[in-house]
Amino acid sequence: TAGITQAPTSQILAAGRSMTLRCTQDMRHNAMYWYRQDLGLGLRLIHYSNTAGTTGKGEVPDGYSVSRANTDDFPLTLASAVPSQTSVYFCASSDDRGGGELFFGEGSRLTVL
Amino acid sequence: GEDVEQSLFLSVREGDSSVINCTYTDSSSTYLYWYKQEPGAGLQLLTYIFSNMDMKQDQRLTVLLNKKDKHLSLRIADTQTGDSAIYFCAEIRGSQGNLIFGKGTKLSVKP
Question: pLDDT by residue (tens digit) across A21-43?
């Protein structure tokens, strides 16, 4: 079973360019999340979606946008990348908000120069 | 918001017990979690404890919860080299029920 698929695995991007990180799940989970992982800072929630058609802001939403047109896909867009957005980005999903296990993708490593 | 606190590093010898500690912030969290991240991979749920429990044991893993002090610990008995990873404590926070992680404790197991 695929679970959560993220793409690309790795990307180098020039500052000022836009980029969309893709996330697809095949578990029909209602909730999806984007986290960024940085050394010494752990995982921080960027945006989340409780169900298709809804999104919400997490701890560090500035500079990022998301959409949830359907249950399976939850893309994360950087409209104009800056070097501080260099990070490893993890997409996750869960079937049950407020208590359910989160299933994570393998991560997308983004470097902004 | 306040941070979920963990020490960043722990080093133990193979066969010893490892204890990873965490201080969380939201006393209304219904569940508290431990996730494990192996190198180059995403996080995977290791174990969790419901907030009305003091202790949960699952094979080599023991989770202790002190709600008064908002303290959570994970004990790994007979630690193996395969246990080397980063361990994240996490709590459910706020009305949206989002999962908030600590910074992670990197466990190194020496042979």
Answer: 999 999 999 999 999 999 888 89
Mean pLDDT by 10 residues, chain B (111 residues): 84 97 86 92 92 92 94 97 95 79 94 90
Given CB atoms, is A89 within the 8 Å cutoff of chain B?
no
Task: Inspect the interface and report whether the beta carbons of B44 and A104 lie closer than 8 Å.
Answer: yes
Please indicate whether, in this complex, the C-beta atoms of B96 and A50 are within 8 angstroms of each other. yes
Structure tokens at A86: 């260099």
Mean pLDDT of chain A: 93
Give the residue numbers in B contacting A (CB under 8 Å), as ranges: 1, 8, 30-31, 35, 40-45, 48, 88, 92, 96-104
